């Protein structure tokens, strides 16, 4: 039985490693997926593959966010689930990164998450679910992941609690997934020796897969997690306990 039949799910950062795996998994569960990302070509290609709606969205732009959200809501009536994958990483230390680069990380990772949540909630029915994406780095601080990225993900984790409190009277839940080191193209930002050491940070001794993150998203998107809100789901192989 499809767990998300007749549900409309909006996914930002949809063409990335974790995002694209999640889009495909959601569609396989019967969801109509709003495939939102900044690349028109990649977004259209993935949306066609899964029978979803292509949305070119820059999550740092209020006008772009509003246009994308309203287009999907007009086409589908409501948006049942929002998944905020859109994010960038800067692997540099706090004494290496320029102020403009620091701000850019926060613009995408934090401001983008805030803008999306604010825009979608008015179109979300009772029983809706918001799934934000934090990080293990947001719990332990930036080492290989960079200070700006870690700080931005800590902000997303805390902001999700605010969303949960705000949206609870509307019958909407909000939770955050904190992935550990996952096999995605984002690892290309790091030096080879840093990537080689990542599996050893996890008790399970390996990197996670995008499919494992996708299953976690589906859990939080469905009624299987109906009594969870403001919660963190740490999917990190035991690299942080």
From TrEMBL:
Record SUPFAM superfamilies: NAD(P)-binding Rossmann-fold domains
Gene3D superfamilies: NAD(P)-binding Rossmann-like Domain (3.40.50.720)
Listed GO MF terms: oxidoreductase activity, acting on the CH-OH group of donors, NAD or NADP as acceptor
Keywords in alphabetical order: Oxidoreductase
InterPro entries in alphabetical order: KR_dom, NAD(P)-bd_dom_sf, SDR_fam
Oxidoreductase among keywords: yes
Oxidoreductase as UniProt keyword: yes
Transmembrane domains' residue ranges: none
Residues in Ketoreductase domain copies: 7-213
Classification via PANTHER family: 3-OXOACYL-[ACYL-CARRIER-PROTEIN] REDUCTASE, SHORT-CHAIN DEHYDROGENASES/REDUCTASES FAMILY MEMBER
Family per record: Belongs to the short-chain dehydrogenases/reductases (SDR) family.
Entry protein name: Unannotated protein
Organism: freshwater metagenome
